[in-house]
Amino acid sequence: MSRSARWTAAVLIILVALGYALLRELDTGSPQSVDPGSPAARDHRDADTPEALAEPRARADLAPCPAGGTAPGPTSLRGISLECAGDGTMVDLAPALAGRPVVLNLWAYWCGPCADELPALAEYQRRMGDRVTVLTVHQDENETAGLLRLAELGVRLPTLQDGRRLVAAALKVPNVMPATVVLASDGSVAEILPRPFTDADEIAAAVNSSIGVPVG
């Protein structure tokens, strides 16, 4: 290969590399996970002010989040407070989840399998009544989009806004969505299920035996 040809090849390689880097920089179609400890991590966008969230909250019409009690609750969640997406109140997770079996569902508005699963979780909650609490955890800082997704699906489960993914980090949940964490009434982690479910029967079969609740 001549000297000029080698120079041409080198320039082309550099241009291709620069073009790839630019495309990576411009590609914002798929949200990227953020280290919860990084300065960039935040629970919601600056645009998600109480005023901006008022209409999406009204459309979503979510059930209230669990209220805090006096029991200490799950050790791994102590010290974590998150916003209840339905009304903007802060929830101290450990005491709020104490003394009851809880199904935590970790999802994000852009996750297709999550959208398919959420109605099944709502049906599972309807069947279980007050025997089990289903609480969803929205793991993206775009709180408005999360509320609008729930409104679109007609899912009114209580939801926590967790853009920093603090719950997943505290409970050591694999970095996949959707993922379901089952907490026993004593606060211990009974199951971590990093996979989607298709219907309420499948959820009950995977969850209920681990927390001592009959499937039927």
Automatic annotation (TrEMBL):
GO cellular component: cell envelope
Keyword Disulfide bond belongs to the record: yes
Region (Disordered): 29-72
Name of the protein this chain belongs to: TlpA family protein disulfide reductase
All residue ranges annotated as the Thioredoxin domain in the record: 71-212
GO molecular function list: oxidoreductase activity
Localization terms from the record: Cell envelope
Amino acid composition bias (Basic and acidic residues), ranges on this chain: 41-60
Signal peptide bounds: none
Any Pfam family the entry gives: Redoxin
Alphabetical keyword list: Cytochrome c-type biogenesis, Disulfide bond, Redox-active center, Signal-anchor, Transmembrane
